[in-house]
Design a protein that fits this description.
The complex is a heterodimer of chains A (260) and B (277). Chain A has 260 residues and is an alpha+beta fold. Chain A is built from seven helices and 13 strands. Chain B is globular and about 55 Å long. The chains are: A alpha+beta (260), B alpha+beta (277). The interface between A and B is medium-sized, with 13 and 12 residues.
């Protein structure tokens, strides 16, 4: 009967229209239902600082892994070796860093398998990471990290950084996250081309102490890594001495009676 | 070589353990016009003879720039050479894009050789009919490689391929020991001498040859005709020594870094498989 048929076709039409529109929606802008995308990070590391010094590169990072505002993990190694010539430091999502380490492991493995006397240097690794991060960003599924990549190859020192959206650059001193705001001003004043190892470490510790006081996600347990033409060493974890005996801390309400 | 019942397809072995189709492909290289390469510690020179089909036509391009630090000279089926050059350029550009660094020439030749090998083991393909002299720089210095249709590749101090290349090789074998320390200009001169050897009396002018150089601090570039003609005039006017044209070559083991067994020796034994020249 005509009315039934019309109703039937109307139902079919709406069903079909829904199918078409939801298909359009999912093909243009992936909806939450059908794809895995990084929306926000879970366990994160805070700043990494890197500087060039006389013999190579020095890098520092603390060992904290925060879960939001909780400092959940206190022995996370955020500085790692990459092949013969490079050192990587990561801030941001720790699981994404672990994924990046797997990519780098495979990259270095295939490079060694050529067995031909050529090897990927820090510049090549930095560029490779830039390509990976930028391509993930374009797919709206970023690896939520800011990375510092440093190394020495054939006497040439290299230090660069790359962010989760693929912004990358090279410089004599770099930092991620809060390090950009708290450490780099110190480095701009006090960094020199010919820093010795001891001077470089002192400079990094000065920056890390500043971060410890002012960055809520910093923990007082850090590692410093050094890479030179000869090789790489990552220090054992240690803590910085801090000073809290300021008069204003001892008697915080002196200027505002009644507050706490 | 004569036709036989094992030479129809590349996937058929002969009882003597030879792949005739691959060997026929290497014949194609020997029929092409000559290409030579020589290297010092810091520079590599490629040169080739350009034979135009007729006076009316232009000659075929046999030297290709693959990247700033790599160039290639071909002999044989130039169409196959063109396609392989495009592949090499593509590989170099992709590597440069990912790593912001030049592709080491040693890796490029291995990729090329693997590509050639595939064609020796597929019934629906044929081997590439072109020999490539790949000149390139990498971290470890200047390199010259020869890639052949069989999928083998060798590194050389100096080499020549194509028809009448034996004459050039004779010249190069006499001179190669001093190439390592040669200056760029001496290297170019030696290349031109070697080319002259293959012309068997024909006059050497910049119209019949092409020369290209790549070296530390010098991107791969093909020298223009005037420059080449000037160089030719210089040594002809100064009456530099005309190298002796020997047709009987003594088997010399010192052919640079390459392991290339003597062609005549292999041909003398019918049963043995001739390796690359």
């Amino acid at each position: 009967m005509p009315s039934e048929q019309k109703l039937g076709s109307a139902i079919v039409d709406t069903v079909f229209a829904n199918m078409v529109s939801s298909q359009n929606e999912s093909s243009l802008l992936s909806s939450e239902g059908d794809s895995q995308r990084t929306q926000y990070p879970y366990v994160t590391g805070t700043s990494v600082i890197g500087i060039k010094y006389k013999d190579g590169i020095l890098m520092a990072a603390d060992m904290g892994g925060s879960y939001g505002s909780t400092i959940r993990y206190k022995s996370v190694e955020r500085l790692k070796q990459v092949g013969k010539h490079s050192l990587i430091g990561a801030s941001g999502e720790i699981s994404d860093f672990q994924e990046i380490l797997r990519y780098l492991d495979e990259l270095i493995l295939h490079d060694s398998m050529w067995d031909d006397g050529n090897s990927l240097g820090p510049k090549e690794v930095h560029n490779y990471l830039t390509r990976v991060l930028y391509n993930r960003r374009n797919k709206f599924d970023p690896l939520w990290n800011s990375l510092v990549l440093g190394g020495v190859k054939n006497g040439q020192k290299y230090l660069g950084s790359v962010s989760m959206i693929g912004v990358h650059f090279e410089d004599d001193h770099v930092a991620t996250g809060f390090g950009n705001h708290l450490a780099r001003p110190i480095l701009r004043e006090e960094w020199r081309e010919d820093l010795t190892f001891e001077e470089g470490v002192k400079l990094l510790e000065k920056c890390m102490r500043n971060l410890l006081y002012r960055d809520r996600s910093a923990v007082n347990k850090l590692q410093i890594a050094k890479i030179t033409e000869e090789g790489l060493t990552i220090s054992q974890p240690y803590s910085l001495k801090t000073f809290w005996n300021f008069a204003a801390f001892k008697n915080p309400t002196v200027g505002a009676e009644g507050s706490w | 070589m004569f036709r036989n019942q094992y030479d129809t397809d590349v996937t058929t072995w002969s009882p003597a353990g030879r792949l005739f189709q691959v060997e026929y492909a290497m014949e194609a290289v020997k029929q092409g016009s000559v290409a030579i390469g020589l290297r010092s510690k810091t520079h590599i020179v490629l040169a080739c003879v350009n034979k135009a089909n007729s006076e009316l036509s232009s000659h075929q391009r046999k030297i290709f720039k693959v990247d700033d630090h790599i160039g290639v000279a071909i002999a044989g089926l130039t169409a196959d050479g063109r396609v392989l050059s495009r592949y090499m350029r593509s590989e170099c550009i992709n590597y440069g894009y990912t790593y912001e660094s030049p592709l080491p020439v040693g890796r490029l030749v291995v990729q090329l050789a693997d590509k050639a090998q595939v064609c020796t083991q597929r019934s629906w393909k044929r081997p590439y009919g072109v020999g490539l002299l790949v000149a390139g720089l990498d971290e470890s210095g200047a390199h010259l490689y020869y890639n052949c249709p069989s999928g083998n590749y060798f590194e050389y101090q100096a080499f020549a391929i194509g028809s009448r290349s034996q004459a050039a090789k004779t010249y190069l074998e006499r001179k190669f020991e001093k190439f390592t320390e040669s200056s760029r200009d001496d290297l170019v001169k030696d290349a031109l001498f070697a080319i002259r050897e293959t012309l068997q009396g024909e006059k050497l002018t910049s119209h019949v040859c092409t020369v290209a150089v790549v070296g530390v601090g010098e991107a791969f570039n093909i020298l223009d005709q005037e420059t080449v003609q000037t160089l030719i005039n210089e040594f002809e006017i100064s009456g530099e020594e005309a190298p002796i044209n020997e047709s009987n070559v003594e088997q010399s083991g010192g052919d640079g870094d390459g392991a290339a067994p003597d062609q005549r020796g292999a041909a003398a034994e019918e049963g043995a498989a001739p390796m690359d020249i």
